[in-house]
Amino acid sequence: MGQQSVYDDSSKFPLLPPIVNGSASDRGDRFRAPVEVVYNYADVDISIFGQVVSGRGIDQWSSLLPPLVAGMGLGEGNTALVEMPKLGAWANLEGRVFVKDESRNPTWSHKDRLNRCTISAARLSGASGVVVASSGNHGASAAAYSARLGLPCIVLASSTAPPAMQTFVNAYGAAVVAVPAAKRWPLLREVVSRLGFHPVSNMTEESHTGHAFGTEGYKTIAYELFIELDRVVPSVVLIPTGYGEVAYGVWKGFVELKLLGLTQDLPRIVVCETSAYGAHKKAIDEGAPAASIKPSGATDALSIAVEIGGHRAVAAALRSGGQAILVSDSEMIEAQAMLAREGLWAELSAASSVAALRKLPRSAGDHRPIVCIATSSGFKDVGVGSRPLPACDGTWDQLATAAKSQGLPGL
C-alpha cells in the first residue's frame, strides 16, 4: 500500500504521511496533481462483497482502505438506496431510477465516509489536532470525527455559512471561525505550520488536490451500490460536485470491482454542478486537467459553489465516458421538491443530481439502473427554520385556511 499521482503512476510515495497538496508535475509549478492510495489487489479477499454488514461502518472494506483507527467509526455508510419510479417519468427516462441517500450518515452527509479515513490519518500521523476549511458538511463531519478520536478541531468557515450549520459544527466542540474566502487557505497553512494540526481539506489555491485518503472513503459508495443492486453496475451515476472527490471515489470503487474480477461493467460518471460556477465543465470543454472560474451569478447551492475545480472530477467524467451537467437553482429547487414529495428531503446542492436527470442523454440499448447520489440533508440549507408557522386558534376554519395555504388539498 502506498500513494501515487492520479495522473502519473510513476510518481510514488510512502503511505504515511498522507499527501494533501498534490505532487509536482512537469506541466509547470502551478500544476500539482492529486494523489491517491494504491493497493495490492491480489491480497484482497473478495468475500467482503457478499453483503453490507450493518453497524460496522466502512470498516467492512478495510482491506481496500487506508489505515483506520480500529473501532472508532460512527457507523457511517450502509445508506439507503431508494427506487423512485416517478423520477424516471418526471425526467422522461426509461429504466429504473434510484437515489442513494447519503443524509443517513452520522452527520447527515457523505462527508462522513471521507472523514472516517482522514481523521484516522491525523491520529496515526501523530497530529496535535485537525484543521479544515469548510462552511458546511465537511466541517461538521470533521468536527464529529475529531471529537470521536479526541483531537481538537478548527473549522475555517465563511461568513455566508447558515447559522444552523455553524451551531451544528460547534456542538461537537470544534472552534468555528468565519474567515474571508481569499484568506482561508493561507490561514489553514499557517495553522498547520504553527500548531502541527493535520489538514483534512485542500491546501492548494490554483486547483483542488485534497487529502489523499479522502476519496478512498467514497469508494465504499460504489461497493454498496454493487451489492444493493444485486451485483449489477449502474449505467450512470449522477453526483453533486463541488471539488469532485466523490465523483472520483465512486469511479475508482467501480474500477476496483472490475480489477477484482467481480464485474466487467463500469458506469458513466456525471458531474453535476451549479450553472453559476461549473469549473469542471469548463475544464472538460477546454481539454484541461482542471480549471478555476468566477461565478456568473448567485446561488443557494452553497455546497457545490466552488471557484477552484478539482482534477479528480474531470478524470472521473472523462475516463468513464461521462460528462459534466450544469443545473440552475430553479432546476434544483424543482428537483428538491420532487424528492420531498417522494419522501426524501435533500439539501439544495444534493438535489443537483436529480435535476441533471432531465439533461441526461441515454446510450442506446443500455437499460441498467440509473443512480442519483443525494449527498446531504435539507436541514443544511440556507434559511432553514426561519419561516414562521401559520397560526391557528384551534378552530376548524383556521386549520383549513392554514393547511390550504401550504398546499394541502381537500379541506
Can you walk through the features of this model?
- This protein has a domain at about 1-110 and about 210-385: Rossmann fold (3-Layer(aba) Sandwich).
- Helix 2 (about 110-125) packs across helix 3 (about 135-150) and helix 3 (about 135-150) packs parallel to helix 4 (about 165-170).
- The strands form 4 sheets. A 6-stranded mixed beta sheet has the order 6-7-15-12-13-14.
- Helices cover about 30% and strands about 15% of the residues.
- The chain starts with a strand and ends in a 6-residue tail after the last helix.
- The longest helix is centred in the middle third of the chain and has 15 residues, at about 215-230.
- With about 400 residues, it is α/β, with parallel strands linked by helices.
Order of strands, main sheet, comes to 6-7-15-12-13-14
The class by helix and strand makeup works out as alpha/beta
CATH class of the domain at 1-109 and 211-384: Alpha Beta
Classify the fold: give the CATH topology of the domain at 1-109 and 211-384. Rossmann fold
Count of extended strands: 15
Order of helices and strands: EEEEEEHEHEHEHEHEHEHEHHEHHEH
* Average residue-wise pLDDT: 92
Q: How many whole angstroms does the radius of gyration measure? A: 21 Å
Low-confidence runs: none
Q: Label the CATH architecture of the domain at 1-109 and 211-384.
A: 3-Layer(aba) Sandwich
Anisotropy-based shape: globular
Helix content: 25-40%
Largest sheet: 6 strands, mixed
Which percent band covers the strand fraction?
A: 5-15%
